[in-house]
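User: I'll paste a sequence; please echo it back and then give the predicted structure.

Assistant: Echoing your sequence first, then the prediction.
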Amino acid sequence: MRFLIQLAVFLFCSVWARAQSLLLNGGFEDINVCPEFRAPCAPEAWISSGNTMANYFKEAKIARTGVNCMAIQAGKFGKQGERTFLRTRLLCGLRAGSKYRLSFWAGSPHPILDNVGFRFSATDPLFDKKPQQTFQPSGLLAAVVAEKNYYSEQWYPFQLDYTANGTEVYFSFAYYAQEDYNGDRTHPLEDRYLIYFDDISLVPLDPAEQLCRGWQQAREEIYDEDERHHLLEKKIKEGKRRPPPPPTLVSTAFVRVDTLLLPDILFATGKADLQSQSFPLLDQLAASAEGKEVDSVVVYGHTDNTGTAEVNRRLSLDRANAAANYLKSRMKNAGPFFTYGFADTQPVADNATPEGRQKNRRVEIYLYLRE
């Protein structure tokens, strides 16, 4: 028994799933249909403080990827104070002290990227009574722009790390120079000085930090914010007069992944039947989840390269199902189970030797626990 347990390579180690962005629709490809005109006139999740249509571009030749991109206005020729900013709401709350990586692409035909910044805020910047440049930005592009000499008309990648204070609800891009830009015009008919954005994402640096509970409902709430055009102007006017309380965000969650590797000897030879020696290992894995929220259980079956492709596929899937079914009987409140049979397509050793083939005949179990 002890010998078999050692051969099972019983791991309870931590591996991590890739985090998803906390900023929705960063490529602006999901389109909002505004109720005022019943037309696709803006991206979902993002709102421009100015005329939405004027800062929303639906041309693949302008966008970095896809079809759509957004812009902010750093000034307007002949008019002082004609700036705009771009704002969205976070999908989940950030954890105080945790680090997050903001990635995006930006570009402008004007040498103004150095004064572009971003700001996290506890209240909606749409209802701020002061211009955005009077606030302290959470980060500026100046250092990156100076180092890379980003002064030509093309898209540039930016990546900045941010340490959260735990009060963040909204995120915005703005032009933070104290004076409006008033340089050369790119065209006699273009009187705006624009900075374009595309492919925006915000992810935790710790890959164990994942989306919060109820993120689907939060996504619906953000996408349901449909006011644009005159309805948006009315909302901003009312919000400045009587600011509504900001929503309470659920903080991101940490997900741990416990893993278990079942070797070939814990199954009947050439079959999917579990040997009794495997039960204590599976029971111990199930016990580790007691009193915790199990997001999901993923089970992968593998074989060596002997036998036909169809036989190996069936055997690998049947063994994965056998391990999953046993765990289901021991984990009554677990999340969904997913089983996959990879046959001999993912070897971990050389199939040319008996030892290598034995290592390749295995079942891998991943138990995703939300903490």
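The domain at 31-241 is CATH 2.60.120.260 (Jelly Rolls). The chain has two domains: 2-17+253-370, 31-241.
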